[in-house]
Design a protein that fits this description.
With 423 residues, the chain is of the alpha/beta class. The protein folds into two domains: 205 residues, Enolpyruvate transferase domain (UDP-n-acetylglucosamine1-carboxyvinyl-transferase, Chain), CATH 3.65.10; 208 residues, Alpha-beta prism (UDP-n-acetylglucosamine1-carboxyvinyl-transferase, Chain). Helix content is 29%, strand content 25%. The chain binds uridine-diphosphate-N-acetylglucosamine (UD1). Uridine-diphosphate-N-acetylglucosamine (UD1) binds next to helix 1, helix 4 and helix 5.
């Protein structure tokens, strides 16, 4: 069984380069199916989820060539509308945007159920409502979702009850080649949505996003191939910034857009950290103490749910009490139990976590509950006294490129090991 062995107590100091965004990569590579031709994608993170995703694309008939910075996709051949379950795919949520992409490309889609981190029930009613509004018939058959365009894809006015990231992406992708205009009201405003729109517009689409959740897509007849560079990963940047301060260190995250994770920066400042923001870099330093603060997760531009577990680990050692309210996913406090094994004092009541800060955490054997929970455990273990073993690191590998190398380069001590366990 694999684990990460972490020696705690060393302040991280130095610079960390941020990789391309995981959550921008999936919708953009999905949207490439709307185009016929060869396209190069750069700044793509080489993480497990992305490598699995490219295997899924290959199984649909896409030519995939990997290079040091990314991938070239060749979408000129016939694309299959049937996406069966890939063996490594059960934790991958990114395939959700293949629904809109296959409908847009072939007029139909047959998809196995969607995976993703176990952080909530993750319904897809808003995706389905959007597809139906565009003229798609949907059925569930033997575990597969079957979608078929009735006559032709037709633009429509679609109101989302919640600004779901995945549903907004699917509607944008499916309506790009539809007839007429689609208007999404209360759409998601995450930077990954804008990146998807920028890619599609570079291919000749006609999409406008005004920043207040209204997205207008005027259908076009065809798209042409375009090479594209993916934006930086705001969640990765926020994770290392928190990690540096949590270890009482001084870390600069480079090649990132600070605006994308401003709420995290503001909250770290509120907690007493010194944070300097530059054009494409952010430096975070521990000053003399961290005080407890309150955090509420919200859709962008609010505090991101994907940084909530890391913040929980960070606040475990703050002075005083902190309250975290999680409003996006109902099952996202699973890491609290593992942090408790390290000496944290966390009480969960529904969607609220109350964290009473302790002066130190101790190394322990812990299990990664999900991707961001894994990042939170690394933050806790690096700032704890003694050695920790973090089991099941595969979840971390799914979302963080070269994480061990990046941490060790700034003074952390993390080693990947394996042991045989007698069951
Ligand atoms: C994406 C991100 C994930 C991030 C999340 C919120 C990817 C691959 N994953 O996930 O890392 O945590 O955005 O920023 O990009 N909902 C419905 N019905 C739907 C769809 C969603 O009720 O049809 C609810 C969900 O249960 C959840 C909330 O909406 O409570 C947010 O989900 P959504 O924004 O869709 O997240 P994902 O696209 O799954």
């Amino acid at each position: 069984m694999e684990y990460l062995e972490v020696q705690g107590g060393n302040p991280l100091r130095g610079e960390i380069n941020i990789s391309g965004s995981k959550n921008a990569t999936f919708p953009i590579l999905s949207a490439a199916l709307l185009v016929k031709g060869r396209m190069h994608f750069s700044n793509v993170p080489k993480i497990l989820d992305v490598l699995t995703f490219t295997k899924v694309l290959e199984s649909l008939g896409v030519g995939v060539e990997e290079d040091t910075d990314g991938f070239t996709l060749d979408t000129s051949k016939d694309i299959s509308s049937i996406k069966d379950s890939h063996p490594e795919e059960h934790n991958l949520r990114g395939t959700q945007t293949l629904l809109g992409a296959l409908i847009g490309r072939t007029g139909e889609a047959k998809l196995s159920s969607l995976g993703g981190c176990n952080i909530g029930t993750r319904p897809i009613d808003l995706h389905l409502k959007g597809m139906q509004a565009l003229g798609v018939d949907l059925k569930w058959e033997e575990g597969f979702l079957t979608a078929k365009v009735k006559d032709k894809l037709q633009g429509n006015l679609i109101y989302l009850d919640f600004p779901s990231v995945g549903a907004t992406e699917n509607i944008i992708i499916a309506s790009t080649l539809a007839e007429g205009e689609t208007i999404i009201q209360n759409g998601a405003r995450e930077p990954e949505i804008r990146d998807l729109i920028n890619f599609l517009n570079a291919c000749g689409a006609n999409i406008e996003m005004n920043g207040s959740g209204i997205i207008k897509i005027k259908g076009v007849n065809a798209l042409k191939p375009a090479d594209y560079s993916i934006i930086s990963d705001r969640i990765e940047a926020a994770t290392y910034l928190i990690m540096g301060i949590a270890t009482r260190g001084d870390v600069k995250v480079r090649n990132c857009n600070p605006y994308y994770f401003e709420p995290v920066i503001m909250k770290l400042k509120e907690a007493g950290a010194e944070v300097d923001v530059y054009d494409k870099e952010v430096r975070g330093r521990f000053r003399d103490h961290i005080r407890g603060i309150n955090v509420k997760t919200l859709p962008f531009p609010g505090f991101p749910t994907d940084v909530q577990p890391q913040m929980m680990a960070f606040l475990s050692r703050a002075e005083g009490t902190s309250v975290i309210i999680e409003t996006i996913f109902e099952n996202r406090f699973r890491v609290a139990e593992e942090l408790t094994k390290m000496g944290a004092n966390i009480k969960i009541e529904g969607n609220t976590a109350v964290i009473t800060g302790v002066s130190s955490l101790n190394g322990a054997n812990v299990n990664v509950p999900d991707l961001r929970g894994g990042a939170a455990l690394l933050i806790a273990a690096l700032s704890a006294e003694g050695t920790s073993r973090i089991y099941d690191p595969i979840h971390i590998d799914r979302g963080y490129e070269n994480i061990i190398e990046k941490i060790n380069k700034v003074g952390g001590i993390v080693e990947r090991k394996a042991e045989s366990r007698i069951l």
